[in-house]
Amino acid sequence: MNQTESELLRRAVQLALDNVENGGEPFGALVVRDGRVVATGVNSAVSDADPTAHAEVAAVRAACRELCMHELADATVVSSCEPCAMCHAVCTVAGVARIVYAAPKEFVPDLGRPPRPDLVAMQTALRGLAGNTVTYVPTPGADEPFTRFAVAEQS
Prior knowledge:
Blueprint: H1 5-21, E1 28-33, E2 36-42, H2 45-48, H3 55-67, E3 76-79, H4 85-93, E4 98-101, H5 117-129, E5 134-136, H6 144-154
Parallel strand pairs: 3-4, 4-5
Antiparallel strand pairs: 1-2, 1-3
C-alpha cells in the first residue's frame, strides 16, 4: 500500500470522527486495492433508516461502483472498528482478502439499541473463523469517535 497501514487506520478513524461531527454514528471504513484507496464509507444507518448502511458496506458498495465490478479480490477493508457480522459477511461475499480494524467491538458503547445476543454470537463465530484475514491493529485515538459520539448524544 502506498500509505502505511497505521496511516490508513488513522484515516478510517478520522472518517468516523467526521461522521460524528456531521451527526452520524462513530464508524468509518475504506477499501484499499493495488496500493490506493478506492472508496470510503461511513455509517448512515440511523439517518437513512437503513440497518444495512454501515461504513464497511458503504465502502464496499462504493468500491464496486468505482471499479465497475462486484468482486474485490486482493482488496483490504480498513475500518475504524471491528466489523459486525453483517459487514464481515459483506466483505467475504465481495471477495475482500483482508480486514484490518482500529478498535475492537468491546470499545463500542451502548448506542441506544437493545443488546442482540444473536448478533454478538454471530460476530464472535465469524471472528473465530476468520483466521489471519481479520486483524486488530491497536491505533492511538481509536476510541475517540465513541467518546465524541457519547458526548454528542448527551447534548
